[in-house]
Write a structure and sequence with these properties.
By secondary structure, the chain is α/β, with parallel strands linked by helices. It folds into two domains: 68-165, 3-Layer(aba) Sandwich (Oxidized Rhodanese, domain 1), CATH 3.40.250.10; 183-297, Rhodanese-like domain (Oxidized Rhodanese, domain 1, 3-Layer(aba) Sandwich), CATH 3.40.250.10. The chain contains eleven helices and 14 strands. The chain has helices at residues 2-27, 71-75, 94-100, 121-126, 144-155, 183-186, 190-194, 213-218, 229-233, 237-247, 263-274, and strands at residues 68-69, 86-90, 107-108, 135-139, 161-164, 167-170, 176-179, 187-188, 205-209, 225-226, 254-258, 280-283, 287-289, 295-297. A five-stranded parallel sheet has the order 1-5-4-2-3. A five-stranded parallel sheet has the order 8-12-11-9-10. The N and C termini lie far apart (180 Å).
Amino acid sequence: MLKHLKQSKALTLVTSLLLVLSLVTGCGSAPASTTPAQPPASQEPAKPETPAQPEQPAATAPTVESNTLGWDDWSAKMKGTINKDYYIVDLRTPDEIKLEKALEGSINIDANATLGTGNTDVIDEKLQGAAKDAVVLVHCKSGGRAKKNLQAFLDKGYVNAFALDGWTAFDAKGYFGATKITASSEQLKPDAWVAKMQGTIGKEYYVLDARDKSEYDAGHIEGALNFGVRDQFTVDHAATIAKVKEAIPNKDALVLVHCAVGARAKVAQAHLKAEGYTNVITLDNKITIDASGNYKFE
């Protein structure tokens, strides 16, 4: 029995040693890391590329053709105060201005005596204080000198200089109008002008005498109406036109205009056409009329 007891103790001791050994072995190695893999850092979405902007075309330099305007477009630029927001340059001669009148505040440069002889420095002298980009409105009597000399203004750097393509009309009270006149068909020599006198004067056609009343009273074509340039149209345009409308109510009627030489007839023509009379023909020639109404051309 003693022998059996010793065997039992030995077995218990071996079992205990095996248990200790298993515990030591199980704790000897560290478990593998179980830290989850980090997801890749988020990236901002790629921005779309901005399309290349097309190159802006270079500003077109003004030309005589682009800056020559009819009355409606030209006069529309008269905004604000004259000699502050815009400038008007009158290229007529002093004699023309004396006869036809001018707009108050306009700057006179006699193109024939200055620009026509090569003196373009007068432009800066007369426009002293005006910015180079200021609106400069250029006119003459019929449009010819304005267009012919516009390049001189552009060459001086006045990029907003504009020529009026039209015949001008003024009066002493501030009236200013203009109209397009075709000289070849609306300003005729004697034979062509007289050939228009078909039918009854005052019915099929009218004759308008643009001379002074004293000249008219000394002798005039029978049946002619007297509306003088110097004593009526350029004194008070509105009052004169009101009388013309009473005498010639139909604005499409044929109106044959004359004076003594031709200059005043063209001024009267501009006043009439600026008011909407469509069929106004002037005599581009000298004419003399005696007390009996007989006339001859020189």
